[in-house]
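Below sits the subject:
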Amino acid sequence: MRGLPVGAVRVGISRAGVDRMLRDLALKVFGVLLVLMVVGVGGIWRFSRRMVLPIQRLRDSAKAVQAGDLSQRVAVDRNDEIGELSSAFNAMTADLARSRAELERKEEMRARLLEQVITAQEDERKRIARELHDETSQALTSLMVGLKVLEVRPELAGMRETLADLRALTGKTLDAVHDLALQLRPSVLDDLGLVPAVDRLVADFQRTHGIQAAFETNCRLGPRLPAAVETALYRITQEALTNVARHAGAHTVSLLVEARDGSVSLIVEDDGRGFDVARTMSEGRDERSLGVFGMRERATLLGGILTIESTPGSGSTVFVEVPLPTEVSDGRSQADPHPAGG
């Protein structure tokens, strides 16, 4: 019959062969997928590195700039937004470096001008104090002698009381002129140095204001300090004591001047009412803040530092440290190897 099978053919294929063939095929597919995955991961890693590295460099450079290193520059090796950001960062750091250099130059000029102003001020103080001492004081002394002579003249017996009053007034004026000359520029500072000048300043402070003051120092022996250092420390001491008398309401004040390890330090401490240092300096309106600014400028001009520690109700401490030239430090070490308080 047409269309009916007339026989069958059986092909012999083992199951193991089929399994091996499928396994080989699966391994090939897995291998291809693994290669594709490695290539994809590598491409992603390279892309991410290309994107992240410039940002990391910008971050590190920004941290360096924040720390004060304005020489930082970032390589501009691409034309996308990150490249534009790098260019802008480089321009910013260059502008900051120029601005800082200009600021440092202006600060140096300001320091020089301030030093010249202070030097001229001290010279003028010295000149006026000398004129007051040599001319005005002598004239007043001669006037007192003349009034004394007039008191004993018989024809002026009726004016003796008036002459005595005039002589007393002249004596008071002479004392005031003498005190003014000392405040302007004490001759003992130029003739004998810082320690005798502070000794006299402390004695006058106690007598005038009735505040107990103690002064200790290890600078009584050995060579004198440089003239600029002595003048600055004397003026700072003078201003600190003035602030104590006017603002502190203190009963006692202690002063220490100590030269050691290549520097000289000044400490002025009182037991007064204290004040808020940060607020006073930020407002900068009252006489005390101006005085503190002047003291700090004098210390800074010599390469020193001035700090003030105070809280309301607990007194105040002024601390100044000024470096000494090497030859002065060596000379003091040889002259006074074991300094003791004065």
User: Anything to note?
Assistant: The chain has nine helices and five strands. The first helix runs from residue 15 to 66.
